[in-house]
Amino acid sequence: MELDARKLRVLGAIVETYIRTGDPVGSKWVAQQLGGLVSPATIRNDMAALFDMGLIEQPHTSSGRIPSHLGFRVYIDRLMPVTPLSQEEKDQINAIFNVLNPDPDRLLEDAAKVLARLTGCAAVCTTYIPQGVTVRQLNLIGVGSRTVVILLVASNGIIKNKVCRVDFNVTQELLTFFNSFAAGRLVGMSINDLAEGYLSAASVALGEYAQVFNSILSAIFDLCREVSGGQYYQSGASNLLAYDELRQGARDVFQLLQNRAAVWEMIFSQQKEPLQIRVGRENPSQELADFSLMVCRYNIDKDNTGAIGILGPVRMDYARLVPHLEYFAQTLGKLLADTMDGH
To answer: Given this model, what pLDDT does residue 314 score?
Structure first.
């Protein structure tokens, strides 16, 4: 059966009305949306055809119809009117970023919170760390008689630190020795190599100090794993409870969003284009069968990439959210690049 121009207009009217109201759409309302140029009887015939094609569904015995997941896909690919952001809308997003903490970790965390608030959806912000990232700086700083701070700066600008209680007296001699050891043996090493066990071999080079610094090496291993795993922040999961159709599956999705590895895999292994929208059952995870996931990739520099995404109802306002998400990602990537260049 042919999906001609009129049927496409009917489908578009149904989708856009359903996005606004969340209610089934009847033929009389569609006729009004099309300016009265097509009779309700003709609309009913077109709706019957769209139903047979699997593009709309009848949720119950009323005369109204709602778009199927396939209908949303056709709308997104062929009908969705994406309007570029106005300068005022760009200025509003720029103003938000101007007050966020410039530290890369805090920036991503704050960005996830802001994105969730702006969209009314759950939001994730994450980065992918390439294989070539190395240790740029590694220092042990004494802050108490038995307390030290490990400061690690990676070549991509990521900064990590960890407070450690130790079982030896912290002296300037020990700090100087370890910092000299780190500068000679660990600085310049691949983060991934350190995270995969080089530190256990390096401890041999510490000689008589190996036992003293065992806990420090273990903490450095943990920091390297954090860096090599990229950054991941999620916010706004409770926003999903505002949509009646999502409440039943919300608990499973809450647990999924806590699973950093699963979300990272969905975003980076499945993403082929800079912007991807997965509707309902197009998502690789069964928990997201009734949700839509919109993910936008961004570049930090030639080696580092990241992605932001929003998770919400299938009836999310794609036309409004797409340009907002793209500009948000572009701005976040530029700010992260500027921040990391400063280190």
So the answer is: 94
